[in-house]
């Protein structure tokens, strides 16, 4: 980890800053999961070691619960699965993903101790849990999780206090990072990456996180790579600059972003973009030329878009891609009459549509959507011009 260092970020607790210059696309660091589990609904469809999705997976003969691409993935996952395997076998079924992840973390602590692991800047003990900020509903969920955890945790494993188990469940709640399958189309699991947890949020981040499932295809195991996340620079970063990612979709209207951050991460965002409301007008643009649509009409179409995006999410998580396409096309037809080219709700639909269409091999239509999407993102956010002298994309403009 010679590319980053921990520091105390003003008003934000700890943070990470760069120690070396980085350029767009550079991998600042890669990190393996401290622990990770497949979502409940996909445990038989996704490999429990590398999180790739396959038609045919190899099942653990002992618990019949864990699934793997092949023997290589099974062997690699065994150290982590061993205790889980006998606990699942004993209980006759596996508990939910939160409990499984908490158990994976605690078994690792049992094996290695709670201190720093190799390559980590912080230990699990030091991660934030926000349990003290929980509302009634969240406290109730925590109690239910604690109960099912205790039911699942074997008496012959190391015993932990209730407070410590609550800490782990709290850490999962606010630090869990979503993992995707090898096509990047579907969220398939959740993992804890301690170093990544140290990267603070900004609504206009200078880094993004990419999930890499790893690769075992080479004949020689020397060339195999393991599942990991990669923190990549989005543009030039100077030594000493704080590294940031966006905890929420940063292409979201300021108010929505702040609401989501408060709800899930318990802080009020005070970043530049939030303070100055930068981009909000572009992201809410309505169609120009002709009669300006009424506020009421705009409100309606935005609500309709939000509802459709929820339906799309659901269809996507179920892998029903033709339904996703249908929903996108219907929504787009309605949006086009009212919303401007830079409107975030229109761009979001275009983005999903182009991604899913290219997966379905409708290349021409996919390319058309991508072109429109890129054009929508092009106007410079600082100069508000389509052809700003900085001649870079909206998200990389450096002209202030
Ligand atoms: Zn695998
Ligand atoms: Zn097993
Ligand atoms: Zn912000």
From TrEMBL:
EC category: transferase
One Pfam match: zf-MYND
Swiss-Prot/TrEMBL keywords: Metal-binding, Methyltransferase, S-adenosyl-L-methionine, Transferase, Zinc, Zinc-finger
E.C. number(s) listed in UniProt: 2.1.1.354
Reaction(s) catalysed by this chain's protein: L-lysyl(4)-[histone H3] + 3 S-adenosyl-L-methionine = N(6),N(6),N(6)-trimethyl-L-lysyl(4)-[histone H3] + 3 S-adenosyl-L-homocysteine + 3 H(+)
Stretches assigned to the SET domain: 2-248
Ranges that cross the membrane: none
InterPro entries given in the database record: H3K4_H4K5_MeTrfase, SET_dom, SET_dom_sf, SMYD1_SET, Znf_MYND
CDD domains (alphabetical): SET_SMYD1
Domain spans labelled MYND-type: 47-85
Protein name per UniProt: [histone H3]-lysine(4) N-trimethyltransferase
């Amino acid at each position: 980890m010679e590319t980053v260092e921990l520091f105390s970020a003003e008003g934000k607790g700890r943070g990470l800053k760069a120690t070396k210059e980085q350029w767009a696309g550079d991998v600042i660091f890669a990190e393996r999961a401290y622990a990770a589990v497949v979502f409940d609904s996909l445990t038989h469809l996704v490999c429990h070691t590398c999180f790739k999705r396959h038609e045919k997976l190899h099942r653990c003969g002992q618990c019949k619960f864990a699934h793997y691409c092949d023997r290589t993935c099974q062997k690699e996952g065994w150290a982590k699965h061993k205790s889980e395997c006998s606990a699942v076998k004993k209980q006759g079924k596996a508990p939910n993903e939160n409990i499984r992840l908490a158990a994976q973390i605690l078994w690792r602590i049992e094996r290695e101790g709670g201190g720093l692991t190799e390559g980590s800047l912080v230990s699990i003990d030091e991660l934030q849990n926000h349990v003290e900020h929980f509302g009634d509903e969240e406290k109730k969920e925590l109690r239910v999780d604690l109960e099912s955890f205790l039911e699942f945790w074997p008496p012959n494993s190391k015993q932990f206090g209730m407070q410590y188990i609550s800490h782990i469940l709290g850490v999962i709640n606010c630090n869990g990072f979503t993992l995707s399958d090898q096509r990047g189309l579907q969220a398939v699991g959740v993992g804890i990456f301690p170093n990544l947890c140290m990267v603070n949020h900004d609504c206009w981040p200078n880094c993004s996180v990419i999930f890499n499932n790893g690769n075992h295809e080479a004949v020689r195991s020397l060339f195999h790579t393991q599942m990991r996340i990669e923190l990549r620079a989005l543009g030039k970063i100077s030594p000493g600059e704080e590294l940031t990612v966006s905890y929420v979709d940063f292409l979201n209207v300021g108010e929505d972003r702040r609401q989501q951050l408060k709800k899930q991460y318990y802080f009020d965002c005070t970043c530049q973009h939030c303070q100055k409301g930068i981009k909000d007008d572009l992201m809410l643009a309505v169609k120009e030329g002709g009669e300006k649509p009424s506020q009421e009409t705009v409100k309606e179409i935005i609500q309709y878009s939000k509802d459709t995006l929820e339906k799309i999410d659901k269809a996507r998580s179920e892998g029903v891609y033709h339904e996703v396409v249908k929903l996108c096309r219907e929504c787009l037809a309605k949006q086009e009459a009212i919303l401007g080219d830079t409107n975030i709700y229109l761009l979001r639909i275009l983005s999903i549509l182009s991604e899913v269409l290219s997966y379905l091999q409708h290349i021409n239509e996919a390319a058309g959507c991508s072109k429109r999407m890129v054009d929508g993102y092009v106007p410079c956010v600082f100069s508000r011009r389509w052809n700003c002298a900085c001649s870079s994309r909206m998200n990389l403009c450096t002209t202030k």
